[in-house]
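in:
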């Protein structure tokens, strides 16, 4: 959204007022400039005014993901007009791992929810870095039911893996044959067959 807009032109969300927040100063992991602190919907975060990236700590991002009202506020939050594009001469910028603003360790690049298509930089102990517009893309993914679909997919994968494990255990366990039948079952079947043969012999 552009400054002064009352509603988002894409989703219709009402613009929310962005206020300053009292947070310690951290460096932008991309620009190395000081990030400003802001509060949006009661959640504090840091923003780089140069590149438009956002640094959100773990607990704040968890609350945004769980609270539909906060998601609306994020979508309706006023922000500066888009800056220069990350692409130059039609070629995408190369992938670069960036350090966590808090601990300095290189962050992991992950596909949010493994199926959103939004790649974010994550320090599991401290927070998540969102390049310009990535947070809005993730919120739209969540509000479109993306997290529910991801959970269902994970559940199906877990059930499939458990079933495969049970099959492998039956086949590779002690005293089993290629069909998964235990030796005790073989002995019981063989014993019944022998008893039938003896009974037939006596009756003849």
């Amino acid at each position: 959204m552009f400054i002064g807009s009352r509603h988002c032109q894409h989703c219709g969300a009402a613009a929310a007022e962005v206020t300053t927040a009292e947070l310690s100063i951290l460096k932008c992991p991309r620009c190395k400039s000081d990030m400003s602190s802001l509060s949006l919907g009661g959640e504090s975060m840091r923003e780089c005014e140069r590149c438009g990236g956002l640094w959100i700590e773990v607990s704040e991002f968890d609350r945004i993901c769980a609270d539909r009202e906060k998601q609306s506020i994020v979508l309706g939050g006023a922000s500066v007009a888009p800056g220069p594009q990350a692409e130059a001469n039609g070629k995408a910028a190369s992938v670069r791992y960036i350090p966590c603003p808090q601990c300095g360790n290189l962050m992991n690049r992950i596909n949010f929810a493994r199926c959103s298509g939004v790649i974010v930089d994550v320090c599991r102990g401290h927070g998540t870095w969102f390049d310009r517009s990535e947070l809005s893309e993730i919120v739209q993914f969540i509000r479109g039911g993306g997290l529910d679909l991801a959970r269902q997919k994970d559940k199906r994968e877990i059930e499939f893996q458990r079933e495969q494990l049970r099959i492998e255990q039956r086949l590779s366990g002690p005293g089993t044959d290629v069909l998964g039948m235990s030796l005790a079952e073989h002995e019981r079947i063989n014993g019944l067959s022998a008893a039938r043969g003896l009974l037939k012999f006596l009756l003849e």
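note: Residues 77-92 have pLDDT under 50 and may be disordered.
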